[in-house]
Fold this protein.
Amino acid sequence: MTKGLLIVLSGPSGAGKDTILHTLLQKSQDLRLSVSATTRNPREGEVDGRDYFFVTKEQFLSMRQNGEVLESAEYCGNYYGTPAKPIRDWMDAGSDVVLEIEVQGGGQIKQKCPDCVSVFILPPSVGELERRLRDRGTESEEAIQKRLQAARQEILQAKAYDYVVINDTVDNAVAAIQHIVAAEKYKKDRNLDTIEGVLQL
Ligand code: 5GP
């Protein structure tokens, strides 16, 4: 069985990653979403185990110390990390797995798993990003300013990613990611067994 793809999706807060991701998940039967652990407080409507595993700082540090997370980062004063085991299990079973993580974590994953496919979602502009963050209405002014500052820093890291996709419309962005994933599956390095198989016939 072919191992699944590991897809890393990053982009500044407010770039529309969540909407893109959920549309992508609805359209792709065999795509699994990694649920991260975080020490930040749940936002209204967020469910433990679905949106995040909400943990205390002590629990997070212990998970990290025990090697239970594939990567971790501190972002705007909170810890975030990707639980390792579900990802290995899903990929071994042939499913593609998508991680929605910030850039420090994205860099750690690329180092550990160089054959992952990393995609950076860009907003059409920083002004548009600010408008989206305000429309969301979930953050204080201070948090918005912090996130905008973080966003500028993050956008500078886009060049370290394999692909960049501008989220002008959700449909365009989702279609672009579907094309990227489809093309990645034809890469020769992912198909060395297939080449061998053909030679055996
Ligand atoms: P939020 O607090 O808005 O849900 O997420 C803040 C940032 O943390 C987003 O850029 C999100 O992609 C990122 N993030 C979520 N989970 C993880 C994770 O497991 N690891 C890393 N490195 N970043 C994460």
